[in-house]
Amino acid sequence: MGSIKWLKPIKTRPNTAEKTMLEEEEPLSPGARLFHTPQFNCCIISIVGSKTKVDIEVIKEGIRHTMIKHPRLSSKLVLDPKKGNKPTGWIRTKVNVDDHIIVPDLDPNLNSPDQFVEDYVSNITKTPMDLSKPLWEIHILNIKTKDANAIGVFRIHHSIGDGTSLMTYVLACTRQHANPHALPTLPTSKKTRRVVSPNDVRSLGLLGLFYGMVFVSKMLWNTLLDLGLFCATALWFKDTNTVVKGGFGVGMSPKRFVYRIVSLDDIKLVKNALDVTINDVLLGMTQAGLSYYLNRKYGEIKGEGVARKNNLPKNIRLRSTVLVNLRPTSTIEVLAEKIASDSTKRWNWGNSIGYVILPFHIMLRHDPLDYIRDAKATIDNKKQSFEVVCTYAIAMLILNTIGLWMNAALSYRLLSNVTLSFSNLLGPREEISFYGHPMEFVASSVYGHPQALTIHFQSYWDKMTFVLAIDQDVIPDPQKLCDDIEESLKLAKQAVIEKKLFK
């Protein structure tokens, strides 16, 4: 099964340029160095559901033809014994795909396959990656779960690249299921930016100049406020110690990954009704879900049950970090061309990451749509700020003047003082196949950073999957939090229909 006729034959003899690349050492980027410090030994986990049983040999052959052509996926770390075996760079190596594909011998009649997958992925986080080979692996579990007929688990060290770039590269190795020769397509914004002509400027006159000054002033003011909050958080300003906030050492503890699949059409219905973005809806869903969850937990603590009575402490400060990669990401088409051409040129790759701190409004709202309106206001303010650029510049300044140890210490303190991490990644608009295997869902997250909760949204085709990466000692009932986030979408959809806001 799983035709891969569109792939070019693999070359068996490297040319001179390839030999040179195998011998050259490339230094680690600042972001890669950060992800190899003890405080941030981060890995990306991606759980992929397949509609069919996985043919192991077809997967291996496909990877040999495509995935390992990327320099980062075919390079291992250079360790300096004089510096305690600290990583100093990358060097190309010949990849034995068999060393990276892990296929456990499983009982096909497991009593609870979904629980087995959850436990299996959690156990992966307890095992460090082998630094003697390229830092990626794929676990294939040929068992049927409630959502798929087989499961693949990708683990990739975060030093290889940011989530968006890695996802784009993996998609360049896939094809549309309905058209095996066509690359996947990603959603694009329908809004077009009109070019302002000199006549437009003259017609606006003093009014246009005034509005321009107001806009610039707001950008500068928001940036100053955001930077002040960022610096205070990195030094001493902490979130409220709620039941979802981790304590010291939480980054080193094993993580458990739970996911839930909801309808992307339902999200778009709410989005269009309120004239907001999908990010606004997702942030609003998360705010609502966390509010419901915390209200229940504090009700249980007070012994007052789980009713909608307001059990929340006053003035909860709960914030999220959002990591934004500033390096331009190549398109799927460009990456696919590089794979097909066996390009030996250096790829524009690496982690160039800035921070954004998002405040969450934790409260009980009478109108579930108010959570989304709050989220829109928050995101609009962040759009009118240079926070992400400035935080990246501050990190680079500290790295170049004081050193990596201070950069890591301040980053660790920043994330420790904030409750969770939040992210959203756009996936393909159509069903895709990974070397002939049609994919049912994609659920991605990360572990290794000092937070007990990470919430990641991933769109795919007509679905939206959200994943919680949690420390079970802090959040022992993650499925209930999933229920609350899912319920928040149902309530928002119901409100849109009852108020006849849909278009």
Automatic annotation (TrEMBL):
Task: Give the way it sits in the membrane.
Answer: Single-pass membrane protein
**Which GO cellular component does the record give, naming just one?**
plasma membrane
What residues does the O-acyltransferase WSD1-like N-terminal domain cover?
55-281
UniProt subcellular location: Cell membrane; Endoplasmic reticulum membrane
Q: Which residues form the O-acyltransferase WSD1 C-terminal domain?
A: 349-491
Q: Which GO terms describe its molecular function?
A: diacylglycerol O-acyltransferase activity; long-chain-alcohol O-fatty-acyltransferase activity
Q: In which pathway does it act?
A: Lipid metabolism; Glycerolipid metabolism; triacylglycerol biosynthesis
- Keyword field contains Transferase: yes
Read off the InterPro entries from this record: CAT-like_dom_sf, O-acyltransferase_WSD1-like, O-acyltransferase_WSD1_C, O-acyltransferase_WSD1_N
Kindly state which keywords UniProt assigns to this record, in alphabetical order: Acyltransferase, Cell membrane, Endoplasmic reticulum, Membrane, Transferase, Transmembrane, Transmembrane helix
Q: Name one Pfam family in it.
A: WS_DGAT_C
Which chemical reaction does it catalyze?
A: a long chain fatty alcohol + a fatty acyl-CoA = a long-chain alcohol wax ester + CoA; an acyl-CoA + a 1,2-diacyl-sn-glycerol = a triacyl-sn-glycerol + CoA
Does this entry carry the keyword Protein transport? no
Chief localization: membrane
Q: Name one GO biological process term.
A: triglyceride biosynthetic process
**UniProt protein name:** Diacylglycerol O-acyltransferase
Family statement drawn from the similarity comment of this UniProt entry: In the N-terminal section; belongs to the long-chain O-acyltransferase family.
Q: What is the lineage of its organism?
A: Eukaryota, Viridiplantae, Streptophyta, Embryophyta, Tracheophyta
